[in-house]
């Protein structure tokens, strides 16, 4: 069995510009973004296995943080 990560999910931000009725978030007015140091550490840890892996960028609405998406993509 392969013990290396094959899939890394990065929740870059909890910010969202919608108000969906089905949303489970309770604190819709308090948003946070993942610190770059945390994203970088997660990517480096996953890459340290030497195996390829898939990165999924998610969040609230990650497109509200385009510079963070671009920065994250530059590390992959």
Write structural notes for this entry.
It is a single chain. With 76 residues, this protein is an alpha+beta fold. It has one domain. The protein has 2 helices and 2 strands. Strands 1-2 form a two-stranded parallel ribbon. Strand 1 (7-13), helix 1 and strand 2 form a beta-alpha-beta unit. The radius of gyration is 14 Å and the shape is elongated. The model has no long low-confidence stretch (mean pLDDT 86).
The best one-word shape is: elongated
How many extended strands?
A: 2
**Percent helix range:** 25-40%
Strand content: 15-25%
Secondary-structure element sequence? EHEH
Query: Strands of the biggest beta sheet: in what spatial order?
Result: 1-2
**Class computed from helices, strands and strand pairing:** alpha+beta
Mind summarizing the main beta sheet? 2 strands, parallel
> Mean pLDDT score, rounded?
86
Summarize the structure.
This protein has about 80 residues and is α+β, with helices and mostly antiparallel strands.
Task: Outline the fold blueprint.
Layout lengths: L6 E7 L22 H12 L6 E6 L6 H10 L1
Parallel strand pairs: 1-2
Question: What characteristics describe this protein?
Answer:
about 80 residues; alpha+beta; two-stranded parallel sheet; elongated
């Amino acid at each position: 069995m392969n013990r290396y990560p094959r899939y890394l999910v990065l929740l870059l931000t909890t910010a969202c510009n919608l108000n969906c009725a089905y949303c489970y978030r309770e604190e819709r007015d308090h948003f946070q973004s993942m610190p770059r140091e945390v994203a970088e550490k997660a990517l480096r840890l996953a890459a340290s296995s030497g195996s390829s892996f898939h990165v999924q960028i998610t969040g609230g609405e990650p497109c509200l943080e385009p510079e963070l998406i671009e920065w994250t993509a530059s590390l992959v």
